[in-house]
Amino acid sequence: MLIRFYLNNQLKEINSDPDKRVVDLLRENLGLTGTKEGCGEGECGACSILVDGVSKLSCLMLAAQLDGHNIITIEGLADGEKLHPVQAAFVVGGAVQCGFCSPGMVIAALDLLQRNPHPQRSEIRQGLSGNLCRCTGYQKIVDAVEAAALEMGDKL
Amino acid sequence: MKKVLFPLNVEEMWSMWQDNPEAGLLAGGTDLLVKLRSQRIRLKTIICLEKVKELQQINTDGAQIFIGAMTNHQQLLENQVVKSRLGCLHQAAAVLGSPPIRHMGTIGGNICTASPAGDTLPPLYVLQANLELVSPTGSRIVPIEEFIYGPGKTALAPMEVLKQVIIDLPVPGIQTHYHKVGQRKALAISVCSLACYMQLAPDGSVGEARLAWGSVGPTVMRFPEVEALLYGRKISLDILRQCGELASQKVTPISDVRAGAEYRRRLTANLLIRLLPD
Ligand SMILES: Cc1cc2nc3c(=O)[nH]c(=O)nc-3n(C[C@H](O)[C@H](O)[C@H](O)COP(=O)(O)OP(=O)(O)OC[C@H]3O[C@@H](n4cnc5c(N)ncnc54)[C@H](O)[C@@H]3O)c2cc1C
Ligand code: FES
Ligand code: FES
After folding, report:
1. Do B178 and B76 share a structural domain?
2. B60 and B14 together in one domain
3. Helix or strand run (H / E) with residue B26
4. Burial class for A62, CB neighbours closer than 10 Å (0-12, 13-18, 19+)
5. Which residues span the domain enclosing A93?
């Protein structure tokens, strides 16, 4: 099946089995390995992507469901060499240890900040509640999102 | 599975379904794709409901609200009428899954999955929601408690789709609540949950009361005898304990990986205590 969609602001037309999982399509066919697969069943958030600006789980989506939509993956956030402020805050704040959860965390943080540019800490925790991290204990991740929100103010 | 179809309206859906009678329906996919992946079900064709226009909108005429089956939990959470008039349903959407699960999962999928732990179900039971089911030959209205008759078992006929949920908006003076106990705050399937609907007189005495528990039996459970205990009484610790005593004898919980039956029985009673005014 021919699938047409915007991927990181570029029009893509690709042939794929319609029932291929989006996480596999991104990683295997398109070489975008920033999106991770942890659990494969919706529990960990490592596979999060933005679909029309909203966070969804690419392990629970079929390739055919991309058709006509606007998809942003972790690879689409930086402006050339310049990291997105949320990514930069993760680096500066030491919110990354092994890094496996980080792409999903950054996507979840963006989803939250678009809906709520000035979140309380409890709201940040809630916004990240679909994402598991096995390394950091979450504190530094919440700090990083808080710092990014301050940095960005209203310009998201 | 080789084909994924996207009908744009109900008419197209019937013709695609008639051409592929073995097809399965996909709403948000948060239950179905997990089951397909673990090969608990196999499908050659999937009919995706996300573009079927008749299933999308939330409308109200002031007396009733009509919630399209494809409404996702985030839309439910953000809807102002649901927030101000159907507090228990708003509260259920707020504790369901996680942000991405709320962006994907739908109310129709939650109902048709018919899990005893489905978070929107106890609220829909106390709100006495009606479901509109459509098929190529017409439509019928079924009350939610007749629609679900066992874990994963619904009254859906072979070529039938849940179109919308219809709820009478409670009049002023009615309070509704939803309380859920899970193993942790997010992404936790309920271990026991309680929805309540209470008509309160100005002096604080209870008129009609409806209580529905989730995760303590094969389906959501209501007990008229327990609800009757509240009639004409003021809410107090004492009366809530009596209700809890009776309810915990009536529930039929199981033990599973999340909790033991005895703990669930205790929660059945203890959740009632949360109805005490602060
Ligand atoms: C990580 C995770 C966490 C979760 N947490 C919770 C939770 O806290 N609380 C909770 O209640 N649930 C939870 N769920 C379960 C699930 O997200 C919900 O039940 C959700 O509402 C299902 O909706 P869906 O649109 O994704 O359904 P789908 O998976 O698309 O469909 C489910 C079933 O219903 C059928 N169906 C769907 N819509 C219709 C229709 N309109 N007419 C006829 N049949 C239809 C489908 O054919 C399928 O058999 C969780 C799931 C995951 C993966
Ligand atoms: S891999 Fe998708 S949620 Fe875990
Ligand atoms: S940094 Fe290792 S899982 Fe989060």
Report:
1. no
2. no
3. strand B24-26
4. buried
5. 85-152
- Nearest residue, CB atoms, B103 vs list A18, A55, A126: A55
- For residue B235, the enclosing domain spans 174-275
Are residues A122 and A104 part of one domain? yes
- B6 CB within 8 Å of a chain A CB: yes
Domain count, chain A: 2
The CA-based angle B259-B32-B4, given to 5 degrees, is 170
- Residues contacting residue A135 through CB under 8 Å, at least 6 positions apart: A97, A98, A101
Report the separation in Å between the CA atom of A123 and the middle of ligand 2, taken as the mean of its atom positions. 22
Q: Measuring CA to CA, which residue among B170, B86, B166 is closest to residue B131? A: B166
Task: Give the number of domains in chain B.
Answer: 3
Q: Tens-digit pLDDT profile for chain A (156 aa)?
A: 999 999 999 999 999 999 999 999 999 999 999 999 999 999 999 999 999 999 999 999 999 999 999 999 999 999 999 999 999 999 999 999 999 999 999 999 999 999 999 999 999 999 999 999 999 889 999 999 999 999 998 666
